[in-house]
Amino acid sequence: MSDVRKVGVVGAGMMGAEIALCFAASGFDVVIHETSLDLAKKGKERLGGILDKSIQKGKATPEEKTRFLESIALTDDFEGFEDADVVVEAVFEDFGTKKEVFSRLDTICKPQCIFATNTSSLPITLLATAVGPDRTGKFLGAHFFSPAFVMKLVEVIPALDTDEDSVAFMMDCCRKINKIPVRVKDVAGFAVNRLLHAMWVEACRLLEEGVATPEDIDNACRYGLGHPIGPFALMDLTSNDLNLRVQQILFDAYGERFRPRPVLKQLVDANHLGRKTGRGWHRYNK
Ligand SMILES: NC(=O)c1ccc[n+]([C@@H]2O[C@H](COP(=O)([O-])OP(=O)(O)OC[C@H]3O[C@@H](n4cnc5c(N)ncnc54)[C@H](O)[C@@H]3O)[C@@H](O)[C@H]2O)c1
């Protein structure tokens, strides 16, 4: 791990930009590739805002902000990826898009470079088919959580043919950026999404049975279980359309216990997707 100097990140959206910041804040040189330089700049500007808040809270200094941002280079043609030691991919959750990115990276990056995907729901073993046989051992999942600059957990997910050395490398890499890595098998939903959706399905059942309101169920989890945010508030934050899609994947993989509840389907039909539409289980000022 001491030989890691440069990190490539693909995608400067909600996850990619903050993953880049995690590495930059730990002293690594980072390069972000986006589909356009404008999008890459937008992502980096958002990081400036995040660091301004850290400065206000006394968690970072203006000098650190400058240093962190200066160590993040931007590209729209993979310039700088040729000497990256590890690449984290965080593009759209679409197999075709990710496959194209990894095939391209495979031709650009040096043979020793480790490839990590931040996919939430695609099988890592399937994505690993995007690279040639010499890279398969170096391909794995590194599932960060949102907001990535804040959340400590990373699920490290070996694919069927990932080398043990690559897993150890990625676990170490996560520790170097002050994350807590957990090793998880390549199964649908990995570990965290299975736990989360099991709770969400039950929260929806409680609501359908008229046992309690969303507000009271949220309070029950916050003040009875010590959760920082209740299940309905969290569903609104992550977006109910995405929640339904993920639940469908879990249902396909595990059957009845993850069958999406009618109350969730109806909410999505009504376009009450959560914070992003101003209304979900709760109402928000847009
Ligand atoms: N949002 C979350 O809470 C969350 C949590 C964990 C994992 N993930 C996963 O992270 C990945 C990214 O999610 P997100 O929420 O950041 O999405 P997003 O839509 O905010 O960002 C995706 C970015 O990828 C860029 N992109 C698309 N195709 C590209 C390409 N070919 N090359 C370079 N950039 C490209 C887009 O322009 C966009 O900026 C997905 O796989 C998602 O499942 C998301």
Briefly, what is this?
The protein is α/β, with parallel strands linked by helices and 286 residues long.
The mean pLDDT is 97
Q: Write down how many β-strands occur, each being a DSSP E stretch of 2 or more residues.
A: 8
Structural classification: alpha/beta
Estimate percent helicity. Answer: 40-55%
- Lateral strand order in the biggest sheet: 3-2-1-4-5-6-7-8
Mind summarizing the main beta sheet? 8 strands, mixed
> In sequence order, what are the helices and strands, one letter per element?
EHEHHEEHEHEEHEHHHHH
Uncertain runs:
none
Unique ligands: nicotinamide-adenine-dinucleotide
Rg estimate, integer Å: 20 Å
Task: Give the count of structural domains.
Answer: 2
- By CATH, the topology of the largest domain is Rossmann fold
Keywords, please?
286 residues; alpha/beta; Rossmann fold; N-(1-d-carboxylethyl)-l-norvaline Dehydrogenase, domain 2; 2 domains; 8-stranded mixed β-sheet; 11 helices; 8 strands; 46% helix; 13% strand; globular; binds nicotinamide-adenine-dinucleotide
Task: Tell me about this structure.
The chain is of the alpha/beta class and 286 residues long. The chain folds into two domains: 178 residues, NAD(P)-binding Rossmann-like Domain (Rossmann fold), CATH 3.40.50.720; 85 residues, N-(1-d-carboxylethyl)-l-norvaline Dehydrogenase, domain 2, CATH 1.10.1040.50. The protein is built from eleven helices and eight strands. An eight-stranded mixed beta sheet has the order 3-2-1-4-5-6-7-8, sandwiched between helices. The N and C termini lie far apart (44 Å). The model has no long low-confidence stretch (mean pLDDT 97). The chain binds nicotinamide-adenine-dinucleotide. The site of nicotinamide-adenine-dinucleotide has 24 residues, from helix 1 and helix 4. Nicotinamide-adenine-dinucleotide binds next to helix 1 and helix 4.
